[in-house]
Automatic annotation (TrEMBL):
SUPFAM superfamilies: Acetyl-CoA synthetase-like
Phylogenetic classification of the source organism: Bacteria, Pseudomonadati, Pseudomonadota, Gammaproteobacteria, Alteromonadales
Annotated protein name in UniProt: Propionyl-CoA synthetase
InterPro entries linked: ACAS_N, AMP-bd_C, AMP-bd_C_sf, AMP-binding_CS, AMP-dep_synth/lig_dom, ANL_N_sf
Domain AMP-binding enzyme C-terminal: 508-587
Species, as recorded: Alteromonas confluentis
PANTHER family, sorted: ACYL-COA SYNTHETASE, ACYL-COA SYNTHETASE SHORT-CHAIN FAMILY MEMBER 3, MITOCHONDRIAL
Length: 633
């Protein structure tokens, strides 16, 4: 079927369309109710279907004769380890670890926090949780104890699963002390902490801590617990505009249907082929396309503990492609910028046979045309930019290569994926004509897979996403549609920034900066960075009488940021300014600062307190190299 016909049907007859797609999965009881409203008035998919996501992703394939197929490839240049798990081995490990969790009292609906590096045990822990109908919340290893504590406090997990260490390029990061500190900081204490000991670092266990390997020796394999399609599978915290991260909830049914559909419609994958998302299980890309999508589709997935460069060189992606016969590679544009920086002529590519690779997919941040053109030129492969968010769990816009490969336009994430009715709206919610930039919104109902709520706070969900424009989900991204319906995402319209494909909240960083005793006021903005896309910079105003030089202040703030948010914040610069532009009511004009930084200052709001402050801050930012050069587009 052509893309246009498929898309049209998904928008005109969403229930019939998704009922049809749901048949591709093995339900315990097929849903009778396809689309319904929950008690909060939110659209829900497949609410009365009976299922288990881990069953669909593992047991089903084993029962259908694919037990000997490789399910997971583990490749870790940082530890020198490589291994594989067949579907049968994965099933054995997952069922046993589910037994371990069960022996710790974990039941359907309980939460499990997983704080692990990129090792197969992270995937096993996630699937084991799903097997019991419990809810996992994976926290990225680059977050500091305070961030982990915030998530523990919100999710209230019964158990926490971790490893003795993570391994970055040239350092080992002991995780247990970080976990202990987080639990100490949190008002909620998990009943137990299960630790996978890695040979590189031995964690000290005490109290209710349990050793993964010891527990597995005596564990009784647990069966799959049936859940309703609308029961939660996981909570994944993501940065919002305030200091408190949002616990994006994913349901079981819609998620499985959407991911299964996407594996072919978007990625053109067939069961048995090798799919590699070079991300981390701590991010949504890792949840959807390292763990659930490829396994639901019966593919082989790759768990890679390394970087695109420096582990050991910029040929890592090509080496992996040849070694494992990867058909589709999915990574963030920043990874390709890093490869390009180290190997501009892609000389290392010449050492490998990448003929298995059919398409390169990129997401996580805008794919800038120079990176797009370089990747196409050097690899000779089609490159697909696709736009999505933690909230949606899968791509909103893409080139649907499994349905029809459409013409690519650099700078565009191509067209809306079937199920997503994407509109560009003006400030009062009216659709804008082609070419005009506005807020990107999705007409309700959203397709299966998208968040139905924020954990424990449906009001926040409604306020954050549904109230700005009635009948629409607001994405927080701005952009435009061209006259052929291609979507161009130009960036966030709020205080969320993207640093090396990682989503961070400047509001959260401002809370950290503002806690410095010498700082009266501050604004943290994202400024252009040629490698990481954006990096945060603090513009700070000192308290009267404060005496501290910029260098010392910057050093102290960098330390505070690493301690409170983690190294992943990549906060390295603070600039002391004499004042910040404000409205007459005293609100800092953050949008104006963002516009100056991106070199797109459109107009100065009439509510500004002192118009001269704009020219002043513009001059300072220019002098400090914080304004993007237009040639960098
Ligand atoms: N655990 C602990 N620390 C981590 C970590 C983890 N899982 N991941 C990153 N960090 C640390 C790094 O060691 C670094 O610390 P440092 O400041 O002490 O050196 C810091 O966080 C910043 O890391 P990063 O942004 O990854 O920078 P980098 O210079 O190490 O690597 C890139 C740069 C571009 C190679 C890397 O950011 C990358 O591969 N990005 C792709 C991201 C991605 O896949 N996103 C998912 C969306 S698809
Ligand atoms: P995350 O929730 O971490 O996946 O980040 C989602 C945000 O990343 C989106 O709201 C966009 O701002 C940005 N983003 C992701 N993919 C793209 C893309 N292909 N083009 C432009 N921006 C993107």
């Amino acid at each position: 079927m052509s893309y246009a016909a498929e898309y049209q049907r998904s928008i005109e007859f969403p229930e019939a369309f998704w009922k049809d797609k749901a048949r591709a999965l093995s339900w315990f009881t097929f849903p009778e109710t396809i689309l319904s409203k929950d008690d909060n008035g939110i659209d829900r998919w497949f609410a009365d279907g009976q299922m288990n996501t881990a069953y669909m992703a593992i047991d089903y394939h084993v029962e259908n004769g694919h037990g000997e197929q490789i399910a997971v490839i583990f490749d870790s240049p940082v530890s020198g380890q490589k291994s594989t798990l067949t579907y049968q081995q994965l099933l054995d490990e997952v069922a046993k670890f589910a037994g371990v969790l069960k022996s710790k009292g974990v039941e359907k609906g309980d939460r499990i926090v997983i704080y692990m590096p990129m090792i197969p045990q992270a995937v096993i822990a996630m699937l084991a949780t799903a097997r019991l109908g419990a809810i996992h919340s994976v926290v990225f290893g680059g977050f500091a104890p305070h961030e982990l504590a915030v998530r523990i406090e919100d999710a209230q997990p019964k158990a926490l699963v971790t490893a003795s260490c993570g391994i970055e390029v040239d350092k080992r990061i002991p995780y247990k002390p970080l976990v202990d500190e987080a639990i100490a900081l949190s008002a909620h204490k998990p009943d137990c902490c299960i630790v996978f000991q890695r040979p590189e670092v031995k964690a000290e266990l005490s109290g209710s801590d349990a050793d993964w390997a010891t527990e597995m020796q005596t564990a009784q394999p647990a069966q799959c617990t049936p859940v309703n399609g609308s029961d939660p599978l996981y909570i994944l915290y993501t940065s919002g505009t305030t200091g408190k991260p949002k616990g994006v909830v994913r349901d079981n049914g819609g998620h499985a249907v959407a991911l299964k559909y996407s594996m072919n419609a978007i990625y053109n994958m067939q069961p048995g082929e090798v799919f590699w998302a070079a991300s981390d299980v701590g991010w949504v890309v890792g949840h959807s396309y390292i763990v659930y999508g490829p396994l639901l589709h019966g593919c082989t997935t790759v768990v890679y503990e390394g970087k695109p460069v420096r582990t050991p060189d910029a040929g890592a992606f090509w080496r992996m492609t040849e070694e494992y016969g990867i058909k589709a590679l999915f990574a963030a544009p920043t990874a390709f910028r890093a490869i390009r920086k180290e190997d501009p002529e892609a000389n290392l590519l010449g050492q490998y046979d990448i003929s298995s690779l059919k398409t390169i997919f990129m997401a996580g941040e805008r794919l800038d045309p120079p990176t797009y053109l370089w990747t196409v030129d050097k690899t000779g492969k089609p490159v697909v930019d696709h736009w999505w968010q933690t909230e949606t769990g899968w791509a909103i816009c893409a080139n649907p290569t499994g349905l029809e490969t459409l013409e690519t336009k650099p700078g565009s994430s191509t067209v809306p994926v079937p199920g997503f009715n994407v509109k560009v709206l003006d400030h009062v919610g009216e659709p804008l004509p082609a070419g005009e930039q506005g807020a990107i919104a999705i007409k309700l109902p959203m397709p299966p897979g998208c968040l139905p709520t924020i954990w424990g706070d449906c009001e926040r969900f409604k306020q954050s996403y549904l109230e700005a424009y009635p009948n629409y989900y607001t994405s927080g991204d701005g952009g435009y549609k061209d006259d052929e319906g291609y979507i161009f995402i130009m960036g966030r319209t709020d205080d969320v920034i993207n640093v090396a494909g990682h989503r961070l909240s400047t509001g959260e960083m401002e809370e950290v900066v503002a806690a410095h005793p010498m700082i009266a006021e501050c604004s943290v903005i994202g400024v252009h960075d040629s490698l990481k896309g954006q990096v945060p910079v603090g513009l700070v105003l000192l308290k009267d009488g404060a005496t501290i030089d910029e260098e010392t202040l910057q050093k102290e703030l960098v330390e505070m940021m690493r301690k409170e948010i983690g190294p992943i914040a990549c906060f390295q610069r603070a600039v002391i300014v004499p004042r910040l532009p404000k409205t007459r009511s005293g609100k800092i004009l953050r949008k104006l600062l963002r516009q100056i930084a991106s070199n797109h200052l459109l107009s100065v709001p009439s509510t500004i307190d002192d118009p001269a402050s704009v020219a002043e801050i513009q001059a300072i930012m220019q002098k400090q190299g914080l304004v993007k050069e237009t040639s960098e587009e």
